[in-house]
Amino acid sequence: MTEQERLELEAAAFRSLVQHLRSRPDVQNIDLMNLAGFCRNCLSKWYKAAADDIGVAVSPDQAREEIYGMPYAEWKAKYQQQASTEQQAAFTKGNKP
Questions:
Q1: pLDDT at res. 96
Q2: Looking at residue 90, which CATH number applies to its domain?
Q3: What pTM was computed for the model?
């Protein structure tokens, strides 16, 4: 496999992941964090960091919109639910050093 082929495959896999997350707004970020250790916000931060690494100007808001498919505030208003006590406890337990 060439370097270009690897990059294209990685990019395609990333696009598929982002599209899958956009199609599942019922899956809350806290659930992703509790189960997988990352969420949509993490992806947007990694996206911005990658842009910074290659000198492409991307704001945090632009990065979030790339991942969420809409402005973050709009996504939160439409889909984000209040975390339950159990979700909060699992998050706290999973993030202890």
A1: 67
A2: 1.10.3340.10
A3: 0.88
